[in-house]
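Q: Give me the 3D complex with S-adenosylmethionine.
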Amino acid sequence: MSAPTKSPPDRTAFAAMYAGKAPWDIPGPQQPFVAVADRVVGPVLDAGCGTGENALFFAARGQRVTGIDFVEEAITRARRKAAERGLSAQFHVKDALTLGDEQERFASVIDCGLFHVLSDDHRRRYVQALARVVEPGGRLFLMCFSDAEPGTDGPRRVSRQELHDAFAGGWEVESVEPARIETNPEFTDIKFSEGGPKAWFAVIRRTG
Ligand SMILES: C[S@@+](CC[C@H](N)C(=O)[O-])C[C@H]1O[C@@H](n2cnc3c(N)ncnc32)[C@H](O)[C@@H]1O
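A: Here is the predicted complex, encoded as C-alpha cells.
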C-alpha cells in the first residue's frame, strides 16, 4: 500500500469537521450508489454513514438499513433526518473497526468515503471487521478518492491495485469503475477537480 503523506483524521478531527462545512455532506445520495440501487439488497449497513443521506436513500426504497459512524453529531443529524422524513433506519455511534462484535449480519454494505480516510493499519482492521459482518455472497459497494485526483489535500488517494490488495483474501473484486464524488458547494477550502474529486466505485463480493 502507498505510504500516507499525513496522518489520517481521527474522531476529534471528524467531529470538528461536522461543526463546520464538511466537504462530503450533501443533501442527497451520491449518484454512483443511486446507479446500483437495484443490486443493493437488504439488510444494508452504511459504514461511516455521516449524516445519513446514502443510508436514508436505501431506507426510502424499503430496505432495512443500519448506519454507523463514530461521530455522535453525525448520528444525531442522521436520526433527525430519518424522523423528519418519516423513514425507518437505525443509526448507531460505533467505530467501524469494531464491526462484528454484535450478532447482526448484512447482505450489502455501502462505504462512501470511509475506506479512504483510514491508515494502512486501520484499513486492514476494517476489512477484517467487514468480513465478520458481510454474509457470504454479500457485497460491499465502496466509493473512494482515486489516484487520478491531483494533489494531496483531502483524503488519501487510492489506487486500483490497493483495492485489490486490501480485498485479496475471502473477497472478489467484481468491478472498479471511475466515478466522481459530489461535494458540498459551500466548502471552498480545497479546490478539487472540476466536476468533483475523481473516485473509484468498487463492487466487492464476500466469497468466504
Ligand atoms: C468522508 S466522510 C463520509 C460520510 C458519509 N458516508 C457521506 O457520504 O456523507 C467519512 C465518515 O466516516 C466517519 N469515520 C471515519 N472513521 C471512522 C471509524 N473508524 N468508524 C466509524 N466512522 C468513521 C467519519 O466520522 C465521517 O462521517
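A quick observation: The first strand starts at residue 44 and ends at 47.
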